[in-house]
Write a structure and sequence with these properties.
With 365 residues, the protein is of the alpha/beta class. It has twelve helices and 13 strands. Strands 3-2-1-4-5-6-11 form a seven-stranded parallel sheet, sandwiched between helices. Helix 2 runs parallel beside helix 9, helix 3 crosses helix 9 and helix 8 packs parallel to helix 10. The chain is globular, with a radius of gyration of 20 Å.
Length: 365
């Protein structure tokens, strides 16, 4: 193994993710604009945030950008466990902070990627006040820091749940096609929280000139997902790998929209460096849209060697589980693709690379 290959493996943490980082680093993204700058990444121990930190480390080394990377984390111990020796690099300095409190950073900050957020569906239901609190206070604190530091660019990571329940007559859903959100349902603490944060970004851009953009992410998974992940997409592949039935707790008629982890990170960096201020961009691979039950069937057929089947066990009170309401939307990525971004991985590849990354980790331990 060459020295460069060892460096890439260190950046990625496993062989599959390392391949992804190199691929993103080689995309036609104007990385030179990051040269000599400091970039702050919040939610850095989350899925997208952690891959973003690893990608920036890889980009920094390959393109020799002399960039400083500041992962913002709630626990240094968790960050050390996740990133390992990567945190010992001189270009990375982890900062421990709660985003709901004002952040004081002595050094200059040139770029911000704000991804800190509550992500567990059940938590939206059991702790709706905290869910809203993290969203609004965290985002306003980051926007205030962006204003103070006179940054060059910021991206806020929103969610496709900000769309709500859209008009079923629309064949494709674009950024402006927002639908209905039931504000009496406490689970809406997440989706409505994302909406108000998008508005906060627009307000800071309009009133204070903060150069902020919003990336509205579809459900994102692939290499980099933890083996402890409990969301539905991970449960599907875990059941298939174990030869167990895939159990759906809804009818599965809702449509899902997805994006591969590395594709999403490349999209966020494209928005950061090429997006228009105060604009919203949907990050999705339009080719992945399908019903949940169809995806479950695809996983059972392709990843269980014929041992798994799809079964239904629907609870009487689905609200307890924090499931999102059924939607029929097919998200459109035209606006993002106009910036030059293209998704690479389809849904079977997303699952295959997630599975292979888990197996790669097991082989190395």
């Amino acid at each position: 193994m060459s020295a460069e290959e060892r460096d890439i493996r260190e950046d990625g943490g496993n062989e599959i993710l390392a391949q992804d980082l190199l691929e993103v680093a080689q995309r036609e993204i104007p990385y030179e604009r990051l040269s000599g700058g400091t970039i702050l990444v919040t939610g850095a121990t989350g899925l997208v945030g952690s891959i973003m930190v690893r990608t920036l480390a890889c980009v920094n080394r390959i393109h020799k950008l002399n960039m400083k990377i500041v992962p913002l984390v709630r626990s240094i111990d968790k960050a050390k466990e996740l990133f390992g020796e990567l945190l010992q690099r001189p270009d990375i300095r982890a900062l421990c902070c709660d985003v709901t409190t004002p952040l004081h950073v002595e050094e200059p900050v040139d770029f911000i990627i704000h991804g800190a957020s509550v992500t567990a569906s059940r938590y939206f239901v059991t702790h709706p006040v905290e869910t809203i609190d993290v969203a609004i206070k965290g985002t306003e604190n980051m926007l205030a820091l962006a204003r103070e530091k006179k940054i060059k660019s910021m991206v806020y990571l929103s969610s496709m749940e900000a769309f709500g329940i859209t008009d079923p007559s629309l064949k494709r859903i674009c950024e402006e096609d927002l639908g209905y959100i039931d504000v009496t349902n406490v689970r809406s603490s997440y989706s409505e929280g994302k909406r108000i944060c998008e508005l906060l970004c627009a307000a800071y851009a309009s009133q204070y000139g903060v150069p902020v953009k919003t990336a509205r992410l579809a459900q994102t998974f692939g290499a980099g997902v933890s083996q402890n992940e409990g969301r539905v997409f991970a449960q599907f592949i875990k059941s298939a790998m174990a030869g167990e039935d895939i159990v759906l707790h809804t009818t599965g008629e809702s449509y899902g929209n997805y994006c591969y982890t590395a594709d999403a990170v490349a999209a966020i960096l494209t928005i950061l460096l090429k997006g228009e201020h105060s604009n919203v961009y949907t990050v999705v691979n339009p080719a992945t849209t399908m019903q949940i039950r169809e995806m479950a069937q695809m996983v059972a057929e392709n990843f269980s060697n014929g041992r798994s089947k799809v079964v239904f066990d629907i609870p009487k009170d689905a609200l307890t589980y924090g499931y999102a309401p059924d939607v029929t939307m097919h998200l459109c990525a035209d606006k993002l693709m106009a910036l030059g971004w293209e998704p690479i991985r389809d849904l079977p590849q997303m699952y295959r690379r997630m599975r292979d990354s888990w197996e790669s980790i097991e082989e190395e331990t």
